[in-house]
Design brief:
heterotrimer; A: alpha+beta; OB fold (Dihydrolipoamide Acetyltransferase, E2P); 3-stranded antiparallel β-sheet; 3 helices; 9 strands; 35% strand; B: 465 residues; Aspartate Aminotransferase, domain 1; 2 domains; 7-stranded mixed β-sheet; globular
Chain lengths: 126, 465, 499
Amino acid sequence: MLPQDLRYTKEHEWVRIEGDLATVGITDFAAEQLGDVVFVELPEVGRTVAQSAAVGVIESVKAVSDLFAPVSGDVVATNTELATKPELLNSDPYGQGWMLRIRLADRTALDGLLDAAAYEALTRES
Amino acid sequence: MPYGPHTPEDRARMLEVIGVDAVDDLFADIPQSLRTSGLGLPPPESEAELSAHLLKLAAANRVDLVSFLGAGAYSHFVPAVVDQLLLRSEFYTAYTPYQPEISQGTLQTIYEYQSLLAELTGLDVVSASHYDGATATAEGALMACRATRRERVLVSRGVHPHYRQTLCTYFGGASLVADEIPLLADGTAAGTTAAGTTDLAALERMLADVDRPIAGVVVANPSFFGLLEPMAEIGRLAHAAGALFVAVVEPVSLAVLATPGDYEADIAAGEGQPLGMPLAYGGPYLGILACREALVRQIPGRLVGMTADVDGRRAFVMTLRAREQDIRREKASSNICTNQALCALAAAMYLAAIGPHGLRDVAALGAARATELELALAAAGAPRLHPGPYLNEFAVRVPGAPEVHRRLLEHGVLAGLPLARVIPDDPSFADALLVCATETTTSEDIAAFATALAALVAEPQVGVR
Amino acid sequence: MTAPGDRLGPTLFERSRPGRGGGKVPHPPKGALARIPASQLRADGPRLPEVSEPELTRHYVNLSRLNYSVDSGFYPLGSCTMKYNPKIDEWAARLNGFAALHPLAPDDLAQGTLQLLWELEQALAEIGGMQAVTLQPAAGAQGELTGILMTRAYHRSRGEVERTEVLVPDSAHGTNPATASMAGFKTVSIPSAADGGVDVEAFRAALGPRTAAVMITNPSTLGLFEARLGELLAAVHKVGALAYMDGANLNAIMGRFKPGEAGFDVMHFNVHKTFSTPHGGGGPGAGPVGVGEKLLPFLPSPRVLREPDGRFKLEAEGERATSIGRVRAFVGNTGVLVRAYAYIRAHGGSGLCEVSDDAVLAANYLKARLRDVLDVPFDRPCMHEFVASSATLKAQTGIRTLDVAKRLIDYGFHPPTIYFPLTVEEALLIEPTETESIETLDSFVTAIERIVEEAHSDPELLHSAPHNSPVRRLDETMAARQPNLRWQAMTGGQTPCPE
């Protein structure tokens, strides 16, 4: 069941907006496509990232995917638990499997994100 | 066709099932304008003719000379069991172990190879193999750039010139920079045992340039000139500047010399040929590449890990595959695909056959023979070029070295390598021969070399150039 | 650490006992290392295993029996050309005159090997329709790197530094884009056309002043000859770019198509595919590179040269300033090249043409026989290999290509290449090669037919396959999440050296 309160990207990431903070993860659909996630590489806290820039890597046994910044801003936190428990991306992608938190530089970028209905339509096509 | 099984009837039946009249019809997709007909090559040879021809070619090589030539490829005794086992065609006619259920033989031997080399190098992770020492060194330097996100490495001139050139070729492609660290010349270090080793003061200066941060420092031990380098000190300098330390090593020497793990190198690269591979005019050899655990996702090439099958039984499989080209494509850590797996198997078999004591004996015996060689050559008029400690290879000074080398061939002696041949741009090596001894070198060999050399050195015309 | 099952024996390390082995080399005199400062020495000896020669022999013989190999059965691994490896080639490489020759031996001592290398270069140049060949690259991927680095040097020599892109079809081997990156280029991936071939219009749209090279595998990774190749090469050359041919699939076209004559500027050969040097469980191979006129000056050094008097020599250090330099130490995987040379002489020109004819015949036969069993997405005459797909089977039964492949193991076959090329769903890339008899091909078809029946009648049998192999499906997730890449509990070598 796709959480309705989140925003989404075409790269199968979700974004939770709370004030000027954006928490980012990958969707259940993405996790399923990748298979068992075995390794996650995240940006260092403090780095300024631009929207759509590759900021991390998600590896499964037989696939690899870049993590793109869905919004521009400064990385204020990353989920350090993923270093030892990458499987959280598979088991709880919208909760404990969150990946990083960005302090928004500019709220206008949010307009480009998809809502749950639009994302659901996207995954039905693919 | 010598190895084809088809009879005319087989071919006819296949064409019938396919539904075409002739094999030519199957090539209809090749546009007429691009077609060729046949090959301008000699007719087939029977196996008898072919073997006679190959014997003739092999005999046209001269491998009967008493040889003191090393310089990156070494003649060692290889126990007979190694080649006998390598002839198991279940090993050599298998492909890369992509189907692990029916490749456990290859997979376990690679895992064992990784373990053996981890023990020899004192590091954690060893790749399943690279092409040779030169490309492993280049890949090690590229790793340092990826891991530090810096674009410049420093390479000692004590690293094998072929390795330095290969590294430059690889770095040129990637638009990265490799600068050379000079060696302590005779002039500045005369009388000290440091002559000919990496210039630490120069290294320190290069590392201090904050505008050009250094990703890695690449130094060989023993150096190309056979000298032992101050590896621990070089490692400290590299790490203080935030650079990684890449040690270029020779695996037999690691039975007795301090290991990359001991002197805290981050990456080790080297040529595995001395571990049971024939000289074979340059290959196939074995690129050794090892690193600390923290760098495991930067190491290129295949890795084999131990895991379990669905019944919980031990099994081996290629792992951390997402680093590789078939998955990560343009973002892969390297384009390497085919490696030198059978050579890694040879190395593992050699190490298992020779054993820990045997490997130390090989290294120490080489050192003992080299001591004998040093004394004999010095007495014959060819003293060492550098005074510092060495293991089993060293340079000697002989006036007119290339000519002396050539003349000695007539006496049945392959007197090592005239350094001018591989380092033509450095006049300090114009009169130098690089010579080595291994456990295969005998006292008679040494006497033959020294006697012939003494006679030549005594001739007035030699040495006048 | 997992325990070995009944089929896998213990590791070398578990077999080790103090005091076993030895007797291979004499002991050194005491004090052999006394002249070396203690700070340069290793504190303890390496903890290598101590095993006796009989145990060692059984260890490796029993391990070898866990492998599937060309010498034990049919290995239709698409794009890998797993043909029979002639035994005389192994014999030849082991001749002492070849095996004991030092790579830095003076040319006068190396005339036999130099002649062999020179003649092999000539033969490959003829097969590829190229001006010259370098034998240095150690593998196909290194050949690609060598070729693309030469391309880079060529454009730079003309001042065209703005050429920063290499175009690669999306069906290409991963080595192509990885090579472009290593050589400092940006890869532009071009989608394939609906018929599986290169999309010439898409290439035309992407070609321009930034294009350095186009890398084409021909025949393609779908086993199809690129029918519009002439148009494509003309378009490439029109914008001043160079055309690279990945020669992985050369086994299909010897004598019928010469890449150099067709207009390719550079190509590599995989001698461990086309010329049957053994794959060795992953290597070694060799990846000679052929070049046309434009790239001649940039060939890696040293080249093998023939003097007017018929003697052979290696180019001297620094002799050719335009060279891209060395791509490795010494001169090449010579031992592998000896085998390729023997293979080419045994076949001669006519035999190599027959190799291609029979390879293509076998692939088309197998395709015709399997057409009604599996999907065959591109149903036109194929070259030496073809793509099948289990897409329909999956839709009907839930059985995936992976399951079919694993079940083939139970029937005594090595599975084809699966899930490649990436552009075909549930792909099986099947390459029978010319050295397999019609009986073998027929028995493979029978196995596939039975597996498809089983997919309908007993799918669980396939999901859990293989059943008869030394181990069953592996936990690859555990292997990657908790990597165990070396034996941790090393023992051995700690007893005093026996005197």
